[in-house]
Amino acid sequence: MAAEDVAKPLVVLLGAAGYLGSAVVAELARRPVRLRRVARPGRLRAMPVGRAGPAGVRGSAPPQSPPWEADLSRPGAVARAVAGADVIVHLVAHIGDASVWRAAEHDPATARVNVGLAHDLVAALRARRGGGPPPVVLFAGSASQVGRAGLIDGSEPDEPVTVYARQKLAAERTLLAASAEGVLRGVSLRLPTVYGAGPGPLGNGVVTAMARRAFAGEPLPVWGEGSVERDLLHVTDAARAFAVCTDHVGTLAGRHWVVGTGRPVRVADLFAAVARSVAARTGGPCVPVVSVEPPTTATAADARGTVIDASAFRTATGWRPRQSLPEALDELVAVLARRG
Fold it and tell me: Region Disordered: which residues (predicted)?
């Protein structure tokens, strides 16, 4: 590796092969950094280093070490993964057969990943304290940590109502306490529902799940009247938010920031838009959107609509969402049609 490349900051992405992680990798590929992509064994595929760069990003790709595969829940794994890092992007969450927030309700292993890895990370960085500025840690939090409905801007007291939200809050507090101590410079981005087609896997989110149902000709079920509103953030907009944090660490470090569009959509309207997009792609009729009773697995958070006021983050960084919902739905449907 050339000397000028060694001088570039080392960015370690924990959870680099996941839905959001793949998008963050692609975004950081535009920047003069070295990337270390860390994921569970078997999750990372080799990415070409050349003119196209990872995930087809045009321009000169940053120098990358070989994919780092590790079970981060094992003792010492986190410390080895982040050795020498200038910036650490912590995107790891325990994902079960269903969506991650529901997995947390019944799987005790989630606490080891969703909370325990934050403790491991702090311990690793505390052990390496020395000269120079502390490393930056960017954490993927959740808007559900607030635990309330309506408009949120990040100033609200936290009263999480699900196990997953409580675990996310515990991990965030661990990292921000270490930030106040000077062990690291921590920034937490609290995200709403992330959706859309990115450079990696499509994930198991509700929008993708409904599009798959529509392709199969199945009705799209909404709970009750589907009147709950959601603030949906495209995965590439979320990835840009993490990338832009590296430019504004001095302003952002030491607290959490809510990130979203501020443009909520009713769940029933969202599902109807998914059905129309799929019908336009297939040439068939729109599948119906039908009202059903909430299942027994529903949580209190499912009945609470949230809208994000990201003006504080926007003022601090200049970040704005770029993707419009109609265009993003059509793009997602097109990708699903190609992948089958």
Answer: 47-72
